[in-house]
């Protein structure tokens, strides 16, 4: 799969061999993983312009995979590598990636618990290796968690073990708490990505469009002039639910709202 899908935000495949050992050779990215980078600067958060830039890099890489019928199934900061100048992100680790097929039943409970979509579980504990049908929207859920991390620089489901986090997401419909000061634009994107019904989640092409529109409103950070936080209208309740939007936001997201409501009506 790596040899036939190329994109500037996918780690470049160079070659592979089986003898004397099974080896895959890729480009070297000395900028560390996104996980290590976030841990290094914690508790400081990424500049919003940088965070959304990274999110766009990830979304573009995922969009290319999905366009080629590939599900990554393990999207998380550990599998996102920074370039040497730490200005771009590339997606790596295709060990769990699979080609998507409408009729194929794939292994359940693949990936890493904190970032796994709830449909990878069932109301009855799945046996290891059991097969279950799901689609590429499992990657969209994982992206929603990663975007939340980019904006908060916190571990999702803090204070829980991996299994507790998985149970909370799958059976109690819990999600990481959204910051009180988050932009309604970004809150809407995140909540759309991790909504319970996979069919209600946007595609990565839609996510890219939404993030691009928001990115254009941000000022690129300058070393000599730190950004002042922009005051946002109060549109989020304490439990992270979107309750209202400005007129500009309503217009901006009308197309994706229409998509979600039309799908809900059909279902």
Automatic annotation (TrEMBL):
GO molecular function: ATP binding; protein kinase activity
Record-annotated Protein kinase domain positions: 1-218
UniProt xrefs under PROSITE patterns: PROTEIN_KINASE_DOM (PS50011), PROTEIN_KINASE_ST (PS00108)
Entry-linked CDD domains: STKc_MAP3K-like
InterPro entries in alphabetical order: Kinase-like_dom_sf (IPR011009), Prot_kinase_dom (IPR000719), Ser-Thr/Tyr_kinase_cat_dom (IPR001245), Ser/Thr_kinase_AS (IPR008271), Ser_Thr_protein_kinase (IPR050167)
Residue intervals passing through the bilayer: none
Record-given protein name: Protein kinase domain-containing protein
Organism phylogeny: Eukaryota, Viridiplantae, Streptophyta, Embryophyta, Tracheophyta
């Amino acid at each position: 799969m790596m040899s036939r899908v190329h994109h500037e935000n996918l780690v470049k495949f160079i070659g592979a061999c089986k003898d004397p050992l099974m080896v895959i050779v890729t480009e070297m990215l000395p900028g560390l993983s996104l996980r290590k980078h976030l841990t290094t600067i914690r508790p400081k958060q990424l500049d919003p312009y940088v965070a959304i830039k990274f999110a766009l890099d990830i979304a573009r890489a995922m969009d290319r995979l999905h366009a080629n019928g590939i599900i990554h199934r393990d999207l998380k900061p550990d599998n996102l590598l920074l370039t040497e100048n730490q200005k771009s992100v590339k997606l790596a680790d295709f060990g769990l990636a699979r080609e998507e097929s409408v009729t194929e039943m794939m292994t359940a409970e693949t990936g890493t618990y904190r970032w796994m979509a709830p449909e990878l579980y069932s109301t009855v504990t799945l046996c290891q290796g059991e097969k279950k049908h799901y689609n590429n929207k499992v990657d969209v859920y994982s992206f929603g968690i990663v975007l939340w991390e980019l904006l908060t620089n916190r571990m999702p489901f803090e204070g829980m073990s991996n299994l507790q986090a998985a149970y909370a997401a799958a059976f109690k419909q819990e999600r990481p708490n959204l910051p009180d000061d988050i932009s309604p634009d970004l809150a809407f994107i995140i909540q759309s990505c991790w909504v319970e019904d996979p069919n209600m989640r946007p595609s990565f092409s839609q996510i890219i469009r939404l993030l691009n529109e928001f990115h254009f409103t941000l000022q690129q950070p300058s070393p000599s002039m730190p950004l002042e936080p922009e005051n946002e209208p109060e549109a989020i309740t304490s439990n992270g639910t979107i309750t209202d939007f400005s007129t500009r936001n309503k217009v901006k997201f009308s197309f994706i709202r229409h998509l979600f409501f039309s799908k809900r009506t059909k279902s």
